[in-house]
Amino acid sequence: GIDGKPIVADLTSMPHLLVVGTTGSGKSVGINAMILSLLYSKSPSNCRLLIINPKMLELSFYNEIPHLLSPVITDPNKTVLALQWAIRQMEDRYKKMTEMGVRSIEAFNNRIRQSRQTGMPIRKKVQIGLDPKTGDAKFLENELNFEPLPYIVIVVDEFADLMAVAGKEVDTLIKCLAQMARAAGLHLIMATQRPSVDVVTEAIKANFPTRLAYKVSSKIDSRTILDCSGAEQLLGQGDLLLTNGNRAMIRAHGPHVSDNEVETVTHTLRMQGRSNYAQDLIELIDTSNSACIYGHC
């Protein structure tokens, strides 16, 4: 913060983050700082990343680290397929959680950890019919063999480029994830340089109460992201305003992370473990002729 004290926020409580900032504002450095904080604090078994960056080079540092679900996705059309995959993951997680009788990924993982610590299997009673003599329900106990689920953080840098290619589709997919994915452990970090109303739509704003603004070009841009002016007067190079829709707006200065630091961290991670991509996601984005989905061949 501007008082020199660190500000730490939990992404799971946000539960998604919208980031805006013009060139030189510190937005890209801020995104790297957020990613590195996840890499430092979470192992690949606890947190996986899906990184989408139409600019191609900005986040390519992270390719092949063990946290990634796929190589950094740069094709806007393939992004649609990746977001559809994320929704299917969300739906599959909800099915597992329903089967276990829990309502959040935290409760799901805690049940599995407790089962392993105590040696007591997780069982689910399933009705298999009625007793022909008494008419009473007959039940069978099934043993549930689930693995703990990692959080999935979807980082989308410059989503304005995605909206230009497939705006309606992307808007719908983002809205679905933002509204429903929290309990399943999926969280979004979305960033753009161009916070126009056709990019930061009302549907997106409504589902991203936590918003972070670096310096922007105009009062209009500031109002689009923060619902008030002020971000246009920021100093740049990490100066930012943060709002979560409930508390008073916070002014802070983002941490600086150099390219060399990012390269050092990612190189170390590659040395510690191999990439472990989600094969169904890789097959989906590699085998589909995604460049022609929306006629942008």
Q: Please report the number of helical segments.
A: 8
Low-confidence stretches: 290-297
**What is the C-alpha radius of gyration, as a whole number of Å?**
22 Å
Tell me the span between the first and last alpha carbons.
46 Å
Secondary structural class: alpha/beta
For the biggest β-sheet, the strand order reads 2-5-6-1-7-8-9
Element-by-element helix/strand order: EHEHHEEEHEHEHEEHH
Q: Which percent band covers the strand fraction?
A: 15-25%
What's the total number of strands? 9
How is the main sheet built? 7 strands, mixed
Helix content: 25-40%
User: What is the overall silhouette?
Assistant: globular
Chain-averaged pLDDT: 90
Describe the structure in your own words.
Helix 2 (76-100) runs parallel beside helix 4. The chain is globular, with a radius of gyration of 22 Å. It has helices at 27-41, 76-100, 105-118, 159-180, 202-206, 219-226, 259-272, 279-287; strands at 17-20, 47-52, 122-130, 137-144, 151-157, 186-192, 211-213, 239-243, 250-253. The longest helix has 25 residues, at 76-100. The protein has 8 helices and 9 strands. The strands form 2 sheets. It has a 7-stranded mixed beta sheet with strand order 2-5-6-1-7-8-9, with helices on both faces. It starts with 16 loop residues before the first strand and ends in a 10-residue tail after the last helix. The chain is α/β, with parallel strands linked by helices and 297 residues long.
